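Q: Got a minute? One more chain.
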Amino acid sequence: MKLSCTYKNLKKAVDYTDKIAGKQNSLPILNNILMEADNGVLKLSATNLEIGIISTLRVKIEESGKIAIPAKTLAGFMANLPSETTNIEIETEGYDLKIISGNYKVKIKGINDEDFPIIPKIKTEFFLEIPALKTKEIISKILVSVATAQNRIELTGINISENENKLILAATDSFRLSEGVIPIIERKESPNEEKIASHIIPAATFMELVRLIDLETEKIKIAFEDGQVFFEINGNLLMSRLINGNYPDYKQIIPNKFSTQIFVFRDEIIKAVKVASVFTDNKSGEVNLKIDIQKKEIIIKSYSNESGENETRLKAEFLSGDDQDIYLNPRYFLDGLNSLSTHKAVIFVNNSHSPLIFKNAGDKENEIMEGFLYMVMPIKK
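A: Always. Here it is, folded:
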Protein backbone atom coordinates (compact mmCIF):
# COMPACT_ATOMS: atom_id res chain seq x y z
CA MET A 1 0.00 0.00 0.00
CA LYS A 2 1.25 3.45 -0.90
CA LEU A 3 -0.93 6.56 -0.98
CA SER A 4 -1.36 10.21 -0.07
CA CYS A 5 -4.40 12.01 1.30
CA THR A 6 -5.49 15.08 3.25
CA TYR A 7 -5.01 15.12 7.01
CA LYS A 8 -8.51 16.45 7.63
CA ASN A 9 -10.29 13.63 5.81
CA LEU A 10 -8.12 10.88 7.25
CA LYS A 11 -8.46 12.18 10.81
CA LYS A 12 -12.23 12.27 10.47
CA ALA A 13 -12.32 8.67 9.23
CA VAL A 14 -10.01 7.53 12.05
CA ASP A 15 -12.17 9.32 14.62
CA TYR A 16 -15.28 7.58 13.29
CA THR A 17 -13.78 4.10 13.40
CA ASP A 18 -11.60 4.41 16.50
CA LYS A 19 -14.60 4.56 18.85
CA ILE A 20 -15.92 1.19 17.61
CA ALA A 21 -12.63 -0.64 18.02
CA GLY A 22 -12.59 -1.52 21.72
CA LYS A 23 -10.41 -3.25 24.26
CA GLN A 24 -10.97 -6.91 23.45
CA ASN A 25 -8.67 -9.22 25.40
CA SER A 26 -10.26 -12.35 23.95
CA LEU A 27 -10.15 -11.11 20.33
CA PRO A 28 -7.20 -8.70 19.97
CA ILE A 29 -7.94 -8.25 16.24
CA LEU A 30 -11.00 -6.18 17.21
CA ASN A 31 -8.72 -3.54 18.72
CA ASN A 32 -7.56 -2.70 15.20
CA ILE A 33 -8.73 -0.64 12.26
CA LEU A 34 -8.58 -2.37 8.90
CA MET A 35 -7.19 -0.08 6.19
CA GLU A 36 -7.80 -1.03 2.54
CA ALA A 37 -6.65 1.05 -0.42
CA ASP A 38 -7.89 0.37 -3.97
CA ASN A 39 -9.37 2.23 -6.96
CA GLY A 40 -8.70 5.68 -5.55
CA VAL A 41 -10.46 4.96 -2.27
CA LEU A 42 -9.12 4.31 1.23
CA LYS A 43 -11.54 2.35 3.34
CA LEU A 44 -11.26 2.17 7.14
CA SER A 45 -13.27 -0.51 8.95
CA ALA A 46 -13.84 -1.36 12.61
CA THR A 47 -16.19 -3.68 14.46
CA ASN A 48 -16.93 -5.03 17.93
CA LEU A 49 -19.01 -7.86 16.41
CA GLU A 50 -22.23 -6.07 17.43
CA ILE A 51 -21.67 -2.79 15.61
CA GLY A 52 -19.55 -2.21 12.52
CA ILE A 53 -18.52 0.90 10.63
CA ILE A 54 -16.88 1.46 7.25
CA SER A 55 -15.59 4.95 6.49
CA THR A 56 -14.30 5.84 3.01
CA LEU A 57 -12.32 8.75 1.60
CA ARG A 58 -10.87 9.64 -1.76
CA VAL A 59 -7.07 9.34 -1.89
CA LYS A 60 -4.23 9.26 -4.41
CA ILE A 61 -3.04 5.65 -4.62
CA GLU A 62 0.28 4.47 -6.03
CA GLU A 63 -0.02 0.92 -4.72
CA SER A 64 -3.11 -0.91 -3.51
CA GLY A 65 -3.06 -2.99 -0.32
CA LYS A 66 -4.49 -3.48 3.15
CA ILE A 67 -3.29 -3.75 6.73
CA ALA A 68 -4.74 -3.93 10.26
CA ILE A 69 -3.45 -1.19 12.58
CA PRO A 70 -4.00 -0.74 16.35
CA ALA A 71 -6.78 1.84 16.64
CA LYS A 72 -5.46 3.46 19.81
CA THR A 73 -2.00 4.08 18.33
CA LEU A 74 -3.27 5.42 15.01
CA ALA A 75 -5.87 7.68 16.64
CA GLY A 76 -3.34 8.96 19.19
CA PHE A 77 -0.89 9.93 16.46
CA MET A 78 -3.53 11.64 14.32
CA ALA A 79 -4.94 13.57 17.28
CA ASN A 80 -1.55 15.06 18.17
CA LEU A 81 -0.49 16.30 14.76
CA PRO A 82 -0.49 20.13 14.43
CA SER A 83 -3.84 21.59 13.39
CA GLU A 84 -2.24 23.20 10.34
CA THR A 85 -1.25 19.80 8.97
CA THR A 86 -2.45 19.38 5.39
CA ASN A 87 -1.17 16.23 3.69
CA ILE A 88 -0.38 12.70 4.83
CA GLU A 89 1.75 10.09 3.08
CA ILE A 90 1.19 6.42 3.92
CA GLU A 91 3.16 3.35 2.96
CA THR A 92 3.28 -0.23 4.21
CA GLU A 93 6.49 -2.14 4.85
CA GLY A 94 5.51 -5.72 5.58
CA TYR A 95 3.24 -5.52 8.63
CA ASP A 96 4.36 -1.97 9.47
CA LEU A 97 2.57 1.23 8.47
CA LYS A 98 4.81 4.20 7.77
CA ILE A 99 3.19 7.64 7.98
CA ILE A 100 4.91 10.89 7.01
CA SER A 101 3.46 14.37 7.59
CA GLY A 102 5.75 17.41 7.51
CA ASN A 103 8.37 16.96 10.21
CA TYR A 104 6.57 13.93 11.66
CA LYS A 105 7.46 10.41 10.68
CA VAL A 106 6.19 7.28 12.45
CA LYS A 107 6.16 3.57 11.90
CA ILE A 108 3.21 1.73 13.48
CA LYS A 109 3.38 -2.01 13.96
CA GLY A 110 0.38 -3.66 12.29
CA ILE A 111 -0.82 -7.26 12.26
CA ASN A 112 -2.02 -9.81 9.75
CA ASP A 113 -5.36 -8.65 8.40
CA GLU A 114 -6.57 -12.15 7.49
CA ASP A 115 -8.23 -12.61 10.90
CA PHE A 116 -10.18 -9.34 10.70
CA PRO A 117 -13.94 -10.13 10.83
CA ILE A 118 -16.05 -9.63 7.73
CA ILE A 119 -18.40 -6.69 8.23
CA PRO A 120 -21.82 -7.39 6.65
CA LYS A 121 -22.75 -5.33 3.61
CA ILE A 122 -26.18 -4.37 2.42
CA LYS A 123 -27.44 -6.78 -0.26
CA THR A 124 -30.24 -4.70 -1.75
CA GLU A 125 -30.58 -0.92 -1.38
CA PHE A 126 -31.48 1.75 1.14
CA PHE A 127 -35.20 2.43 1.06
CA LEU A 128 -35.67 5.23 3.61
CA GLU A 129 -34.23 8.73 3.89
CA ILE A 130 -34.69 10.86 7.00
CA PRO A 131 -33.39 14.33 8.00
CA ALA A 132 -30.08 14.05 9.84
CA LEU A 133 -30.25 16.96 12.27
CA LYS A 134 -33.83 16.19 13.32
CA THR A 135 -32.81 12.58 13.87
CA LYS A 136 -29.88 13.65 16.05
CA GLU A 137 -32.17 15.91 18.08
CA ILE A 138 -34.77 13.17 18.72
CA ILE A 139 -32.24 10.45 19.53
CA SER A 140 -30.39 12.72 21.96
CA LYS A 141 -33.65 13.40 23.79
CA ILE A 142 -34.86 9.83 24.18
CA LEU A 143 -31.60 8.11 25.11
CA VAL A 144 -32.12 9.06 28.77
CA SER A 145 -35.05 6.62 29.00
CA VAL A 146 -33.15 3.55 27.76
CA ALA A 147 -32.70 0.86 30.41
CA THR A 148 -29.15 0.05 31.47
CA ALA A 149 -29.91 -3.23 33.28
CA GLN A 150 -29.55 -6.35 31.15
CA ASN A 151 -32.38 -8.37 32.73
CA ARG A 152 -34.76 -7.17 29.99
CA ILE A 153 -32.57 -6.94 26.92
CA GLU A 154 -35.28 -5.42 24.73
CA LEU A 155 -35.39 -2.33 26.96
CA THR A 156 -31.68 -1.63 26.36
CA GLY A 157 -32.57 -0.58 22.83
CA ILE A 158 -34.77 1.98 21.10
CA ASN A 159 -37.89 0.78 19.35
CA ILE A 160 -38.43 2.08 15.82
CA SER A 161 -41.65 1.81 13.83
CA GLU A 162 -43.36 3.59 10.97
CA ASN A 163 -46.68 5.42 10.92
CA GLU A 164 -48.12 7.81 8.31
CA ASN A 165 -44.82 8.68 6.63
CA LYS A 166 -43.08 9.17 9.98
CA LEU A 167 -40.68 7.12 12.07
CA ILE A 168 -41.64 6.70 15.71
CA LEU A 169 -38.76 6.16 18.16
CA ALA A 170 -39.45 5.10 21.72
CA ALA A 171 -37.37 4.20 24.76
CA THR A 172 -38.39 3.11 28.25
CA ASP A 173 -36.82 1.63 31.37
CA SER A 174 -40.31 0.92 32.79
CA PHE A 175 -40.08 3.98 35.12
CA ARG A 176 -40.18 6.62 32.39
CA LEU A 177 -40.68 6.72 28.65
CA SER A 178 -39.62 8.98 25.78
CA GLU A 179 -41.18 9.04 22.33
CA GLY A 180 -40.09 11.13 19.34
CA VAL A 181 -41.27 11.52 15.76
CA ILE A 182 -38.97 11.86 12.72
CA PRO A 183 -40.45 12.76 9.30
CA ILE A 184 -39.52 10.56 6.33
CA ILE A 185 -38.00 12.52 3.44
CA GLU A 186 -38.23 9.76 0.84
CA ARG A 187 -39.41 6.19 0.81
CA LYS A 188 -38.72 3.52 -1.81
CA GLU A 189 -40.40 0.17 -2.01
CA SER A 190 -38.56 -2.20 0.29
CA PRO A 191 -37.87 -5.75 -0.90
CA ASN A 192 -38.26 -6.95 2.69
CA GLU A 193 -41.41 -5.25 3.97
CA GLU A 194 -44.02 -2.74 2.92
CA LYS A 195 -43.30 -0.59 5.95
CA ILE A 196 -41.06 -0.80 8.99
CA ALA A 197 -42.46 -3.14 11.57
CA SER A 198 -41.36 -2.80 15.16
CA HIS A 199 -37.57 -3.20 15.32
CA ILE A 200 -35.36 -2.75 18.38
CA ILE A 201 -32.00 -1.09 17.69
CA PRO A 202 -29.34 -1.11 20.44
CA ALA A 203 -28.90 2.25 22.17
CA ALA A 204 -25.15 2.02 21.52
CA THR A 205 -25.85 1.97 17.79
CA PHE A 206 -27.86 5.16 17.99
CA MET A 207 -25.07 6.76 20.04
CA GLU A 208 -22.66 6.02 17.21
CA LEU A 209 -25.15 7.36 14.67
CA VAL A 210 -25.43 10.64 16.58
CA ARG A 211 -21.64 10.90 16.63
CA LEU A 212 -21.52 10.67 12.83
CA ILE A 213 -23.93 13.56 12.31
CA ASP A 214 -22.47 17.03 11.92
CA LEU A 215 -24.02 20.37 10.99
CA GLU A 216 -23.41 19.75 7.29
CA THR A 217 -25.19 16.38 7.27
CA GLU A 218 -28.46 16.56 5.38
CA LYS A 219 -29.92 13.07 5.41
CA ILE A 220 -29.51 9.50 6.57
CA LYS A 221 -30.35 6.41 4.54
CA ILE A 222 -31.74 3.32 6.27
CA ALA A 223 -32.27 -0.35 5.40
CA PHE A 224 -33.13 -3.51 7.33
CA GLU A 225 -31.85 -6.94 6.29
CA ASP A 226 -31.39 -10.32 7.93
CA GLY A 227 -31.81 -9.10 11.51
CA GLN A 228 -29.56 -6.11 10.97
CA VAL A 229 -29.95 -2.38 10.39
CA PHE A 230 -27.80 -0.36 7.98
CA PHE A 231 -27.28 3.42 7.98
CA GLU A 232 -25.49 5.43 5.32
CA ILE A 233 -24.34 8.85 6.42
CA ASN A 234 -21.58 11.24 5.27
CA GLY A 235 -19.96 8.51 3.16
CA ASN A 236 -19.93 6.15 6.14
CA LEU A 237 -21.72 2.85 6.47
CA LEU A 238 -22.88 1.96 9.98
CA MET A 239 -24.44 -1.42 10.64
CA SER A 240 -25.67 -3.20 13.74
CA ARG A 241 -27.46 -6.29 14.91
CA LEU A 242 -31.06 -5.81 15.95
CA ILE A 243 -32.19 -6.88 19.42
CA ASN A 244 -34.39 -9.96 19.37
CA GLY A 245 -37.56 -9.68 21.42
CA ASN A 246 -40.91 -7.96 21.61
CA TYR A 247 -41.01 -4.36 22.71
CA PRO A 248 -43.70 -3.51 25.28
CA ASP A 249 -46.96 -2.11 23.93
CA TYR A 250 -46.23 1.23 25.57
CA LYS A 251 -48.99 3.09 23.72
CA GLN A 252 -51.63 1.59 25.94
CA ILE A 253 -50.17 3.15 29.11
CA ILE A 254 -49.99 6.71 27.73
CA PRO A 255 -53.09 8.50 29.07
CA ASN A 256 -55.46 10.03 26.51
CA LYS A 257 -57.09 12.45 28.94
CA PHE A 258 -55.79 14.52 31.84
CA SER A 259 -57.47 16.21 34.75
CA THR A 260 -54.79 18.92 35.08
CA GLN A 261 -52.41 20.72 32.75
CA ILE A 262 -49.94 23.49 33.54
CA PHE A 263 -47.69 25.73 31.44
CA VAL A 264 -44.45 26.71 33.18
CA PHE A 265 -41.14 28.34 32.31
CA ARG A 266 -38.75 25.44 31.90
CA ASP A 267 -35.60 27.08 33.27
CA GLU A 268 -37.40 28.16 36.44
CA ILE A 269 -38.74 24.72 37.28
CA ILE A 270 -35.40 23.08 36.42
CA LYS A 271 -33.65 25.32 38.98
CA ALA A 272 -36.35 24.59 41.55
CA VAL A 273 -36.02 20.83 41.13
CA LYS A 274 -32.21 21.04 41.31
CA VAL A 275 -32.45 22.92 44.60
CA ALA A 276 -35.02 20.43 45.90
CA SER A 277 -32.80 17.49 45.00
CA VAL A 278 -30.17 18.78 47.44
CA PHE A 279 -32.63 18.23 50.28
CA THR A 280 -33.56 14.61 49.64
CA ASP A 281 -32.64 11.47 51.52
CA ASN A 282 -30.40 9.05 49.67
CA LYS A 283 -32.87 6.25 50.26
CA SER A 284 -36.12 7.81 49.06
CA GLY A 285 -34.73 10.62 46.91
CA GLU A 286 -38.11 12.17 46.21
CA VAL A 287 -39.42 15.68 45.60
CA ASN A 288 -42.98 16.81 46.12
CA LEU A 289 -44.80 18.62 43.30
CA LYS A 290 -47.94 20.46 44.36
CA ILE A 291 -50.24 22.27 41.95
CA ASP A 292 -52.53 24.98 43.34
CA ILE A 293 -55.06 25.94 40.69
CA GLN A 294 -56.64 28.80 42.64
CA LYS A 295 -53.35 30.51 43.44
CA LYS A 296 -51.99 29.71 39.95
CA GLU A 297 -48.73 28.37 41.27
CA ILE A 298 -46.75 25.19 41.66
CA ILE A 299 -44.80 24.29 44.79
CA ILE A 300 -41.64 22.16 44.71
CA LYS A 301 -40.82 20.76 48.17
CA SER A 302 -38.33 18.28 49.58
CA TYR A 303 -37.22 17.07 52.99
CA SER A 304 -34.16 15.28 54.29
CA ASN A 305 -33.33 14.05 57.79
CA GLU A 306 -29.71 14.91 57.11
CA SER A 307 -29.85 18.13 55.06
CA GLY A 308 -33.05 19.92 56.05
CA GLU A 309 -35.97 21.01 53.92
CA ASN A 310 -36.81 23.17 50.94
CA GLU A 311 -39.83 24.85 49.39
CA THR A 312 -39.95 26.82 46.13
CA ARG A 313 -43.09 28.51 44.78
CA LEU A 314 -43.38 29.30 41.07
CA LYS A 315 -46.09 31.11 39.20
CA ALA A 316 -47.54 29.12 36.33
CA GLU A 317 -48.52 30.87 33.12
CA PHE A 318 -51.65 28.79 32.70
CA LEU A 319 -53.31 26.12 34.82
CA SER A 320 -56.49 24.17 34.34
CA GLY A 321 -58.15 21.28 36.14
CA ASP A 322 -57.69 20.00 39.66
CA ASP A 323 -55.16 20.55 42.43
CA GLN A 324 -52.44 17.88 42.55
CA ASP A 325 -50.04 16.49 45.14
CA ILE A 326 -47.40 14.21 43.60
CA TYR A 327 -44.02 12.74 44.54
CA LEU A 328 -41.34 12.26 41.88
CA ASN A 329 -37.80 10.97 41.51
CA PRO A 330 -35.83 14.24 41.03
CA ARG A 331 -33.47 12.74 38.45
CA TYR A 332 -36.34 11.48 36.33
CA PHE A 333 -38.08 14.83 36.79
CA LEU A 334 -35.00 16.73 35.56
CA ASP A 335 -34.38 14.33 32.67
CA GLY A 336 -37.87 15.07 31.41
CA LEU A 337 -37.48 18.83 31.68
CA ASN A 338 -34.00 18.78 30.11
CA SER A 339 -35.21 16.73 27.15
CA LEU A 340 -37.56 19.55 26.15
CA SER A 341 -36.25 22.21 23.79
CA THR A 342 -38.63 25.18 24.20
CA HIS A 343 -38.46 27.83 26.93
CA LYS A 344 -41.91 26.84 28.14
CA ALA A 345 -43.06 23.36 29.12
CA VAL A 346 -46.52 21.88 29.49
CA ILE A 347 -47.08 19.18 32.12
CA PHE A 348 -50.13 16.94 32.13
CA VAL A 349 -51.30 15.20 35.33
CA ASN A 350 -54.18 12.96 36.33
CA ASN A 351 -53.50 11.99 39.94
CA SER A 352 -50.78 10.89 42.36
CA HIS A 353 -50.49 7.36 40.96
CA SER A 354 -50.86 7.96 37.20
CA PRO A 355 -48.03 8.90 34.82
CA LEU A 356 -47.15 12.53 34.11
CA ILE A 357 -46.54 13.74 30.56
CA PHE A 358 -44.06 16.48 29.59
CA LYS A 359 -44.28 18.24 26.20
CA ASN A 360 -42.83 21.32 24.56
CA ALA A 361 -44.99 24.45 24.66
CA GLY A 362 -45.01 26.91 21.77
CA ASP A 363 -44.76 30.71 21.82
CA LYS A 364 -48.46 31.20 21.21
CA GLU A 365 -50.80 31.22 24.19
CA ASN A 366 -51.39 27.69 25.50
CA GLU A 367 -49.76 26.18 22.38
CA ILE A 368 -48.72 22.52 22.72
CA MET A 369 -46.02 21.19 20.40
CA GLU A 370 -46.37 17.65 19.15
CA GLY A 371 -43.59 15.33 18.01
CA PHE A 372 -42.00 14.54 21.36
CA LEU A 373 -43.19 13.47 24.79
CA TYR A 374 -41.63 12.33 28.04
CA MET A 375 -43.65 10.28 30.52
CA VAL A 376 -42.66 9.49 34.10
CA MET A 377 -44.30 7.42 36.81
CA PRO A 378 -44.78 9.13 40.20
CA ILE A 379 -43.64 7.60 43.46
CA LYS A 380 -46.57 6.06 45.26
CA LYS A 381 -47.00 7.21 48.85
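A: The chain has a mean pLDDT of 93.
Q: Perfect, thanks.
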